[in-house]
């Protein structure tokens, strides 16, 4: 009996009210929702700006052009990308073939020369 009385004296821990618990729960839910929306936006932007597949396809087209497998002007589609290979006639003496890829969904344009200059 002495032990029980001793435990009762030290158990004066106050519990939280229902309103405090609801406010804490709402704050946790709001923070979780904001964090999930931010992460969703980041991952969506990463996926949309990923150009690895089109870069690989452009490298393949460069290889085909260098080895005379395709002739200019050349135009093709690759998923949402519209690709065109043409001669860049800035200087009439030197023509540089260029590859231009345009994404119809994101309106992004990639332009690369066939022969890289160092």
Describe this structure in words.
The radius of gyration is 32 Å and the shape is rod-shaped. It has a four-stranded antiparallel beta sheet, with helices on one face. The protein has two domains: 19-49; 52-113, no CATH class. Helices cover 47% and strands 22% of the residues. It has helices at residues 2-10, 18-48, 52-66, and strands spanning 74-78, 81-88, 96-103, 109-113. The chain has three helices and four strands; from the N terminus they run αααββββ. The chain is an alpha+beta fold and 118 residues long. The relative contact order is 0.10. Keywords: Membrane, Transmembrane, Transmembrane helix. The chain crosses the membrane at residues 21-43. It comes from Winogradskyella wandonensis.
Question: How would you summarize what this structure contains?
Answer:
It contains 3 helices and 4 strands. With 118 residues, it is an alpha+beta fold.
Report the radius of gyration as a whole number of Å.
Answer: 32 Å
The end-to-end distance, rounded to whole angstroms, is: 91 Å
The secondary structure category is alpha+beta
Strand content: 15-25%
> Shape from CA axes?
rod-shaped
Number of beta strands: 4
Q: Kindly state the mean pLDDT as a whole number?
A: 81
Count every helix, treating DSSP H or I runs of 4 or more residues as helices.
3
Task: Summarize the helices and strands and which ones pair or pack.
Elements: H1 2-10, H2 18-48, H3 52-66, E1 74-78, E2 81-88, E3 96-103, E4 109-113
Antiparallel strand pairs: 1-2, 2-3, 3-4
What labels describe this entry?
four-stranded antiparallel beta sheet; 2 domains; transmembrane; Prepilin-type N-terminal cleavage/methylation domain-containing protein; 47% helix; 3 helices; membrane; transmembrane helix; 22% strand; alpha+beta
């Amino acid at each position: 009996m002495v032990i029980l009385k001793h435990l009762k004296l030290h158990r004066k821990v106050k519990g939280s009210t229902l309103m405090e618990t609801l406010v804490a729960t709402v704050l946790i839910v709001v923070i979780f929702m904001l964090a999930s929306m931010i992460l969703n936006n980041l991952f969506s932007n990463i996926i949309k700006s990923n150009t690895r597949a089109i870069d690989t396809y452009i490298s393949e087209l460069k290889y085909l052009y260098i080895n005379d497998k395709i002739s200019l002007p050349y135009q093709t589609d690759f998923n949402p990308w519209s690709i065109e290979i043409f001669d860049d006639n800035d200087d009439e003496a030197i023509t540089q073939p260029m590859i231009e890829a345009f994404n119809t969904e994101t309106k992004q344009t990639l332009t690369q020369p066939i022969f890289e200059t160092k």
